[in-house]
Amino acid sequence: MSPPDTSNSTSEDEGGENDPSAFFNGSMGLHSPGFHSDITKHLGVQIILITAYSLIILLGVVGNALVIYMIIRYKNMRTVTNFFIANLALADLLVNTLCLPFTLIYTLLDEWKFGAVLCHMVPFAQALSVHVSILTMTVIALERYRCIVFHLNRRLTWRSSFLIMGFTWTVSAILAAPLAIFREYRNEEIPSIDLRLSVCSEKWPHGTGRDGVIYSLTMFLLQYIIPLAIISYAYICIWVKLKNHISPCTRNDSVNRRKKTTKMLALVVVVFASCWLPFHVFQLASDLDLVLRFKEYKLIYTLFHIVAMCSTFINPLLYGWMNKNYRNGFLMVFRCEDKPESFHAEGSFKTRSVRGVALNGRKDGPTAV
């Protein structure tokens, strides 16, 4: 999840090319194209990269901060599902503020300017946030599966939701810890051009890349394949249940709201999966030394990283597009208005008990879904 480790010394196994100047010479010192041929050093490319990262940071900070603000500010928005959405927004906000600026500068300068502490903390923070995001999406999918597929009237309480969120952060911190522990901040000297550089790179035990490959494979399964399989199964079951649901005419509005909410949350997962798949595959291929010989390895890595980071600002756009409450809230903030009555059941994550209405033939009070 961290910036490309262009200083990685896997070149030791390639005929003894363990020259610190490999840091300047592209992809891990393997058939290096040379510093001056690094396309990321071209002014036009750097302007594009700065613009792309700056837009992601700006949109991510504004969008995710608005989501969190609305859920805190307006009582009608404080539902269990929205709390989990706020948890997603907090994780994305962490990436936008604590990771992306450092990643951009390191990519442009090819030197770590931020000291030893941040060398350990920045990769950890980014991995932590990604773990929190996917675990929270999994929790949302399972909770909706439990409520919709099995028609359970008992919903999660606020306290339970906060305990679950605390659990996701704890588990995520444990899974991300190796990226903070097995990290090295060092100075590299290049006598040929009389230059001294500060480098931040992975350093796994025993001085080999085998542990890094094992970690990458494990994270690919735990952070991507297994959660997405669980989420996909849950949403497919939910969709089938709602599609086949036969209800009285008076309940069509409630079923439609559930369909809209489920569609929105499923789309969030699809966006996350689509954005992160290229980066995961390329990172894994890098650890297996399958793509390090590419002349433009660094540029490809950076582009895939930008695509992955787009997921940090797309979610608020999806909420505003597909959910009337969020759309109204965003407009109110930009217009400096304060109209809590603009939040209504038709656009919220609240719905009535289908079973209660069907049995009692009357409208029950809203309960959070």
Automatic annotation (TrEMBL):
Keywords from the named record: G-protein coupled receptor, Membrane, Receptor, Transducer, Transmembrane, Transmembrane helix
An example Gene Ontology molecular-function term: neuropeptide Y receptor activity
Membrane topology, from the record: Multi-pass membrane protein
Transmembrane segments: 47-72, 84-109, 121-142, 162-182, 213-240, 261-279, 299-322
Keyword Transmembrane helix: yes
GO cellular component: membrane
Gene name for this UniProt entry: npy7r
Subcellular location: Membrane
Metal-binding recorded as keyword: no
Lineage, top ranks: Eukaryota, Metazoa, Chordata, Craniata, Vertebrata
InterPro entries documented for this protein: GPCR_Rhodpsn, GPCR_Rhodpsn_7TM, NPY2_rcpt, NPY_rcpt
Protein name as it appears in the record: Neuropeptide Y receptor type 2
Residue ranges annotated for the G-protein coupled receptors family 1 profile domain, each copy included: 63-319
Sequence similarity: Belongs to the G-protein coupled receptor 1 family.
Coiled-coil portions: none
